[in-house]
Amino acid sequence: MAKRAPEPEKRPGFFSQIKSLFRFTREIYPWLPWAQVAILVGGILLGLVIGYLIPPFQIWSLILWGITGLMVGVLGSLFLMTRLSTKAMYQKIDGMPGATGHVLSTSLGRKWQASETPVGINPKTQEAVYRAIGRGGIVVVGEGARGRLTRLINEERSKAQRVANGVPVHVYYVGHGDDDVSISDLSKTIKKLPKAIDKTTMAAVIRRIDSVSQSVSSLPIPKGIDPTKVRAQRPR
């Protein structure tokens, strides 16, 4: 008999995702439930006030406006939880090896190409260098102590300048120093870069750099972070 095809993995439902997101966020912000209750009550009260003030006054109109206020409160509480979950995720992964690659590969959007795998790494110290290519040029990001990253950063910057002459190369260090970029601000900082190349040039730069980049897949990836375990799923 022919073997049965494996059943596709079931994705968690909407309410299951909401529940997971709530638990994840509450670990960092214990006051979240009270804030959500306050938003719900505020939404209902706002709806009732509007229904009472709009003439002519009728009970069914007051009830409808109260329900409308409730729905607004639900949306407001979900929005608050989603925003706080993003901040909670950054707090969880801050300082973990591999956090930079996770942010670059998930938060830059379609206008940038990046991978969570480092393009340069020191297996002994876990310092790593990551790269992103987009309309703003080439971005090289160092994760770890600056002093031990100097050689890796210079090698990656020189390679980028050699194969993509004329394309701006931006260097950032993730950390909490005076000239560092915090992990929570990394994607925003990169997205703010002014456009320097068009789509055609961007595609050409990606091909050139990929052709000369040496694979580091055989090197051990820094241990200490599994972004999928610290990032709560957002409701679809």
Concise description?
The chain is an alpha+beta fold and 236 residues long.
Walk me through this protein's architecture.
- It is a single chain.
- With 236 residues, the chain is of the alpha+beta class.
- Mean pLDDT is 84; it is low at 215-228 and 230-236.
- α1 crosses α3 and α2 (32-53) packs antiparallel against α3.
- Strands 1, 2, 3, 4 and 5 form a five-stranded mixed sheet that branches.
- It is 52% helix and 11% strand.
Chain-wise SSE layout:
Layout (H helix, E strand, L loop, with lengths): L13 H15 L3 H22 L5 H35 L5 H9 L4 E3 L5 E2 L6 E7 L2 E7 L2 H18 L5 E6 L11 H6 L7 H14 L14 H4 L6
Parallel strand pairs: 4-5
Antiparallel strand pairs: 1-3, 2-3, 3-4
Helix pairs in contact: 1-3, 2-3
Annotation keywords:
alpha+beta; single chain; 236 residues; 8 helices; five-stranded mixed beta sheet
Regions with little confidence, pLDDT below 50 for 5+ residues: 215-228, 230-236
Task: Provide the β-strand percentage band.
Answer: 5-15%
The overall pLDDT, averaged over residues, is 84
Number of helices: 8
Give the helix proportion (percent range). 40-55%
SS content category: alpha+beta
Which sequence of SSEs, written as H and E, runs from N to C? HHHHEEEEHEHHH
Described by strand count, sense and barrel closure, the largest sheet is: 5 strands, mixed
Radius of gyration: 24 Å
Distance between the termini: 39 Å
Number of strand segments? 5
